[in-house]
Amino acid sequence: MDTSILSPPGEREFSNGDFYSGEVKGLLPHGKGKYSWSDGTVYEGDWDQGKISGKGKLTWSSGAKYQGDFSGGYLHGIGTMTSPDESVYSGAWRMNVRHGLGRKEYCNSDLYDGSWKEGSQEGRGSYSWTNGNRYIGSWKKGKMCGRGVMRWGDGDLFDGFWLNGSRHGSGVYKFADGSLYFGTWSRGVKDGKGIFYPAGSKHPSLKKWCRSLEYDDTGKFVLSRSNSSMGVDEIRSLSNVSRSLSMNTLASDHPRDLTSKSARTFGSARQSEGGQDKNRIAYEREYMQGVLIRESVITSSVDRSLKIRPPSSTALSKQVSARTFMTFLTGEHNYHLMLNLQLGIRYTVGKITPVPRREVRGSDFGKKARTVMFFPRDGSNLTPPHKSIDFSWKDYCPMVFRNLREMFKLDAAEYMMSICGDDGLTEICSPGKSGSIFYLSHDDRFVIKTLKQSELKVLLKMLPRYYKHVGDHENTLITKFFGVHRITLKWGKKVRFVVMGNMFCTELKIHRRYDLKGSSQGRFTEKIKIQEKTTLKDLDLAYEFHMDKLLREALFKQIYLDCAFLESLQIIDYSLLLGLHFRAPGQLNDILEPPNAISDQESVSSVDVGVTQELSIPPKGLLLVTHEPNSVSTAPGPHIRGSTLRAFSVGEQEVDLILPGTARLRVQLGVNMPAQAHHKLDEDKEESATIELFEVYDVVVYMGIIDILQEYNTKKKVEHKCKSLQYDPLTISVTEPTIYSKRFVNFLHKVFPEGM
Question: Which is deepest, 165, 422, 468, 593, by most CB within 10 Å?
Fold first, then answer.
């Protein structure tokens, strides 16, 4: 200011060409005033000690205009911005960016009205396009993300979940003619199972379906309502749908079904079969990245007058008497348990993180290495008040698990936000017989499982050797443990938890899940119990997987090391959790009829694709390329630790996996591993004895060794002897650790055979 040229009171001209006229305080603008910059920008309004603050109007040389609140020289508060392209935003601002509730009308007359965060649409909002389309729902970083409803100008409507602007998760697509498709989407295309109801047919109540989205895909209570997925079985239960008539397994479907309204026409004009009333016909379909691979005709017996009746008192009393504590933890009790867990983990991580890192000592292991804290509802000097019930918290071996989290390259803040953030936890269905409760973090990175007291003892006993094993082998397939805790509820019941990495933490959809032990007795799943996300067993596996030579060598090298470690601890009953992401057979488009060959009124079941055509075209859905660190995601999570694998087919170099049109992924042991799945299918019973049909799919494989907390103790030895009297000892799951390990590895050699 001392370089200014003296002018009449209230006016100052600066050497750089700027000009100010108005009230001053000392040498600084203060009060009402007008400032003109040499580039043509003009501000007129309130000043405070030389800074723009209060209400005013700012006009830039580009033609942009802002009128509203300022603070400390920033656009801050409520105001209206008119851009040079004539788009107009009216609403809340924070530090020069749109933040809060606001309304923006774009230059092309599109309109957004809703919540903003740091300059982008985030939260709840409505976007209307000039062509008549309108979306109402959740946004994140400027894209449709979360639950939302899109209504197109032609009358079509989608109600469900979105991710990065595309349909992703459960949803219902309602066509203008009244037909409906309930199903799941991935990246904007149908992926997984769903049910199509032709126009005029009876279908589930949309209100019931919408209410069901407040629960996860197992029907369990969701602490956070921000994410959900609903399976075909839940949809069928809403409408009391029963399977009937015929099953058609298809090799192809017309691709225009994926993005256009023609999806509703497949099967919609099929005449009633077997005397079935037309309005009771529906179609259960399975898609793979938008390609229809399977369809079955089902009958719907929806009775709109049917009301849900409460169970009889006799049935209810039987249920209550048979309930265990774990099944009791539902509803409000489950809600409190999840809150307690989040409060405890937040306390644990917050307390141990500031402590300087050091190497673990012998005293850091065992039952005595623990911290205990009481959390009263009203809070204390050491704990915050909360909305749950009083509980006591015990954290086992905090220094050990703090070092493990760092060893696994987990940031403490990220870990805490993932589990303890506002988005909360989701309860998921237990795939096993343990009766344990499982919770999933909102970002899918972590699984939290309840433990039996015996399992806790085994974990604490093995922890010193586990710590050394995972430290020595960064590619270990064994479950990653991040923390062990205990909650004591006010009535004295103790619930123990372990936090683990989610082996299926991936942006890809997991189409099939298998729990493989290498035994055969009872290792199958009844067909009537199989749902889309059911974890299948050894005898259900109809695939063998062929991998790159070096990938397979790395896999079995680590399996040998991990099994030797478990055998030395006398551990049995562990299994390989295997997840498969199928790529839609790229060759299907080559054998489809021309686009106009299939009438919109013709069912997909009428398309006849020859067996020889399927066998003659190899899959081409995956590509291995040289690893480029800057080209793959490095988001923190359970898979961030571990080396990038080398592939023989790429000159023994480290590799990335490219999924055309989807992603580029770093290939690690048990993570993003490409393979070819050879599937043996039986044809018609009359021909199955003489004809073998193999289908080949490109798959992305995820795997890890789980359930490692069962010792071969006296109880298991007795169980082995008893079952050996009934069955072949080599086929039963429980057996001596050395035999168990050898059988486990031999079975995996059959699952992942050498060579082609």
Answer: 165
